[in-house]
Amino acid sequence: MRKMTEESLKSAFAGESQAHMKYTIFAEIAEQEGRPNLARLFRAIADAEKIHATNHLRALSGVKESSSNIQVCIDGENFEIQEMYPAYNAIAELQNEAEAKRSIRFALEAEKIHSAMYQKAKQVVDSGKDDIEIGDIFICQVCGHTVEGSAPDRCPICGAPKDKFKKF
Question: What is the band of 139 on the pLDDT scale with cuts at 50, 70, 90?
């Protein structure tokens, strides 16, 4: 693929991915406001944006078999842990942006767990087993803290109570 086309598709993938997330968040807000039809509209179009992003990623040859896909996840999580969030936190610290520092800390701590979970999954997949064995996964809906097994009484990152964890 030629460089300009590749860069265009990468930009389109990023834009469609962001639109998918924004519209999903907007749907949650509309739902909280008692606007179920607006929420449904946001969710429907968010799904279309996800399809666009998926098509762009496929065109970029970014969808492969599970072992390669997991490695992409590990590399991304580790980049966020080692480079991205420390740099972003330094900027937020320099500019005394408390809410940004809080958001970055929440994400950084969750990314560490995600990286470890992906590394464990990659070992299993690369060993030739059909699938990984994993228990229930709980995600704190306040900070993104991720735990396998059961939700803690209080989130160790943000202090949210157990009922703020979503089970997967």
Answer: very high
- The residues spanned by each domain of the chain are 3-59, 65-131, 135-168
pLDDT at 130 over 90: no
Domains 3-59 and 135-168 agree in fold: no
CA–CA dist 150, 106 (Å, integer): 20
Tell me which CATH code domain 3-59 carries: 1.20.1260.10
Query: DSSP class of residue 144?
Result: -
pLDDT of residue 69: 97
Check residue 145 and give left, alpha or beta (phi > 0: left; psi -120 to 50: alpha).
beta
The residue whose two tokens read 């157990």 is: 162
| Neighbour tally for 141: CB within 10 Å | 13
**DSSP letters for 81-142:** IIIIHHHHHHHHHHTT-HHHHHHHHHHHHHHHHHHHHHHHHHHHHHTT-SS-----EEEETT
Q: Which two tokens stand for residue 11?
A: 């930009």
For domain 135-168, the question of CATH label 3.40.190.10 is answered with no
The whole-angstrom separation of Cα 74 and Cα 125 is 14
- The predicted model scores a pTM of 0.88
CB 132 within 8 A of CB 121: yes
Q: Give pLDDT, residue 151.
A: 98
